[in-house]
Amino acid sequence: MSHATADRYAWTEPGVEDLGGGVYRIPLPLPMEGLKAVNVYAITDPGGVDLIDAGIALVPAREQLAAGLRQIGYELGDVRNFFVTHIHIDHYSLAVELRRTFHSVISLGEQEHANLIATREMVNGHGNRFFGADGLRRLGALELITELSAHNRQPPALIEWEDPDRWLTDGTDLDLRTRTLRAVHTPGHTRGHLIFHDAAAKIMFAGDHILPYITPSIGFEAAGNRMALSDYVGSLAKTLALPDARLLPAHGPVTRSTHRRIRELLAHHDTRLDETLNAVQAGHATPYEVAKAIKWTRRHRQFSELDLFSQVQAVNETAAHLEVLAIRGQVAHSVAAEGTDLYQVAAAS
Ligand SMILES: [Zn+2]
Question: Cα(238) to centroid of ligand 1, in Å?
Fold first, then answer.
């Protein structure tokens, strides 16, 4: 591992980071390539703990959470609340598992309801055989469906996709014992994503809405959302309108400024929109073809160099950018006979 790579993943090292004011960062392991860990944040007071996000329902994550809490003087049974930023398995599933034993209260953004229903249908075999298969067909990525089927991957954790105890609406103030957190609806990464903002302490629990090292995947969710990228860019603008804060992300280290990272993410999507438009102008028509025509990651890698999971993300992200270009009238959208999305340069009016 190079020095740069080692530094890049320093935040995933097991342990507890004291962020001051009774707030602690506890990274928990993930079995996902590239992501490596998810940060759970403990907000403590003498009576107990409230957690932002929960980790994945697998034994190593559960044990590391218990160890982290023990290090700061608490047990799993002291967790009163899980405030979960979004429905993804690495954030939600351990909360559901721990609730069975400890009766902690789970809160989740109300717009995640559609994803919860769609996920249950998928798991029970009424929908796609795996996450996003119908979507990939529409995006012209039949090859990826074949490859994914060949992998026949089991979900990394088998959990019951149970409802939370409480659905949170945009703007809800959560009165904790030591601070007030405002839940702000930031759709894009998923349709029901929430960030939790403590304006007084100038900190933001950003979930996967703002990540320091990577650009969050867009609209990777069971219910699907064709407007995911325009929603996301709108959510970035909404977050930029809030006072600047320390960034406490779900993946990556704590950094100084939400505003600074939001500006970088907005610039990234502007560049990606330009690249996407160029690819359509060069004659690439389906989201899959366009994704293969552009460069990925900050190292500008070819699509074929990405792992399978990243290729799926890349095709979805390309589709999201094409949809924004279509909304702006820069490309025209049509649907081929077999149901595949096609894009071409908009006719000059
Ligand atoms: Zn995540």
Answer: 21
Q: What is the pTM of this model?
A: 0.90
Q: Tell me, in angstroms, the distance from the centre of ligand 1 to residue 281's CA.
A: 34
C-alpha of residue 282 to centroid of ligand 1, in Å: 34
CB 207 within 8 A of CB 82: no
C-alpha of residue 91 to centroid of ligand 1, in Å: 6
Taking residue 226's Cβ as centre, other Cβ atoms within 10 Å add up to 16
Neighbour tally for 196: CB within 10 Å:
26
Gap between the Cα atoms of 324 and 287, Å rounded: 13
Compute the distance from residue 250 Cα to the ligand 1 centre, in Å. 6
Q: How far apart are alpha carbons 176 and 45 in whole angstroms?
A: 9
Alpha-carbon radius of gyration of the chain: 20
CA 46 to centroid of ligand 1, rounded, Å:
29
- Distance (angstroms) between ligand 1 centre and the Cα of 116 equals 16
Kindly state the DSSP code that residue 285 receives in the 8-state scheme. Answer: -
Q: How far is the CA of 174 from the centre of ligand 1 (A)?
A: 22
| pLDDT digit string, tens, across residues 87-127 | 999 999 999 999 999 999 999 999 999 999 988 887 776 54
C-alpha–C-alpha distance, residues 21 and 178, integer Å: 9
Which residues, 6 or more positions from 220, have their beta carbon under 8 angstroms from its beta carbon? Answer: 132, 189, 190, 313, 316
Residue 56 Cα to ligand 1 middle (Å): 10
Give the whole-angstrom CA distance, residue 284 versus residue 342. 9
Q: How far is the CA of 173 from the centre of ligand 1 (A)?
A: 23
Per-residue pLDDT of 1-44, as tens digits, reads 445 566 888 999 999 999 999 999 999 999 876 789 999 999 99
17 neighbors 71 (Cβ within 8 angstroms): no
